[in-house]
Amino acid sequence: MAQWMHFEQTGTILEGWLDYKLIGPLRALRHGTSLPLGGPKQRAVLAVLLLSHGRVVEFEKIIDAVWNGTPPVKAISSLRAYVANLRRILGDDAATLLTTSYGYRLDLGSGELDVDRFESLAARGRQEAAAGSQSWAATILGEALAYWTGAPLEDLRDLTFSVHEIHRLQELHADVVETYFDCRLAIGQHADIVAQLEAQLIESPLRERLWSQLMLALYRSDRRADALHTFNRAAAVLDEELGIAPGAALLALDAEIRTQSPSLQWRPPADSITPALSPAHGLFGRSAELDRISEAVSVVASGAGHIVMLGGEPGIGKSVIASEIVARAEAGGVTTAWASPPAGMRQPPLWTWIQVLRTLGDTAGRGQLARAAAALAPELLASLPGWPSSENELPRSSTVDRHAEFRMVDSVALALRRLVDGHPTMIVIDDLDRCDRATRDVLYVLAGNLHQLPLAVIAAFHDDGTAPRSRRSSFDRLIGRSDTTLIRLSGLDLAATTDIVAAIDPESSNVDLAAAVHEYTAGNPFYTKEVARSLAASGGLPADVVPDSVAAVIRRRTSKLPAKTRKALRLAAAHTLDLRVPHDAVLDPAVGEGILVADESSDHLIFCSPLIRDAVAAQCTRAELALARRTDATRLVRVASATNENLWQQMTN
To answer: What is the pLDDT of residue 11?
Structure first.
């Protein structure tokens, strides 16, 4: 099985692009080699543009920042010279330093700014910590701290424009450090972090939270005397530097250590204990599919992408499989997002991708988010609260613009590329067949760039394998690609059904019962679990009672069909015998929906499972049931004859 790889910061350097460093002295690196950026003012120009995160900076603002509010008379000429020099130094990347009518803009493209990456990892790490995933949060935050190689904007700290950014980054760094140590303490690594905490306190001796963490780490390492001595050290430093006593938290911890409070003992966090998988939501009989998908999407480790098209009837397990793949991806450090079009509701164009952008934007760094917003069509930003406004508007025209929709689609694809660039990402689009055309078009545009994007997409869609080709034609462009894997899910085998029944009701399960359930549900995992629950509650297989949850699903599926098709289905299902229905054009929609399938032993149609037939029969009116009783069902079971055809026509007219 493919293993998810852990990504270090060095894995994001892409050939042909520059990586910029603002943490420590300002640097621009190509293939790890620093470029000569010139004197202080020229470097300040580059720093101002980098801190704008891809936005246009007006000439006057750059001049004011570089000369600290007191520019010379010909400052604009000097600024132009600095920009020209920077273009020469950046070489192949000079095209990304753009001139507009009122300012300059630096587009990082596929390059990376260390501040952006630090902020992105910090946001993800704190999010994981808040969710209780302490072990994974510690890994992410540790990777973020690896970017902290010195004081931010170290060589430009005397310029006024850098003061706010330096202070902001230092506060963020301090918070990341403390959250990182909290996570390490939570997972029991108290002895390992003592030396790290001591080193951090040399840099930040007034952070009481660090003193508390050191005291707790020492106490849990069976060094109670050292922990109490650490409190005295903290008190002395606070008194000498600020003239204040330790705060309430430090005082309380000191008291608890002296009394050896049981609350200080370490306990494994919830995320370090693997919970037993609930049999009602477990994944059975899909190891081959999971291995195949994991292998396909593991290419994100090398910076390339892949699409998995996951098809099957409702309840066959598409979402459960995707959830398992997402869990594996997240455990390996991959950013994930999941979106699905709302059922039964009208949606604006591209709504599914708006959901994806919202999720990815929550963990993006400020600069990364600004560059993505700059690429996005402005009218879409209204659906993305918290995103910066864009100064780049699509061209407007008083006439009908035939390319407006394409530009909208392309803007979403570009924004996504900027969000995932350098960040291994997995996106799940559930119910792709219900998405609007523009949403599918974005996927087509992204597919053309997968070879250079660390992006895996799992697209689940309704397809039972018997639907007309016309229904699947919109996916042909994806299915035929070498970087796309198509997996169609069929029903589970008897062994998997037996496992499900035994997991839900171990005491009453047996081989014969599992075989009956398997035949009744045709191996559909959702139907199998619901019937097994009904079995456990009633003590036997219901002869004519369909679980409410299954009945609701079948009602939703049949509600999409034309009225004539629904009536024909109900009449066919009302018979107690295993009815084979002659082919009829009125039933084609039911075949497309996967309710009826071709009978392999004849040219007739049958219900795909007895359970679905019972669920459809439960929708019959009294008149339809009465008609079914009067019908000679045995004549419909025989091989189709002219008489049978006439009888079927009589029933459905």
So the answer is: 34
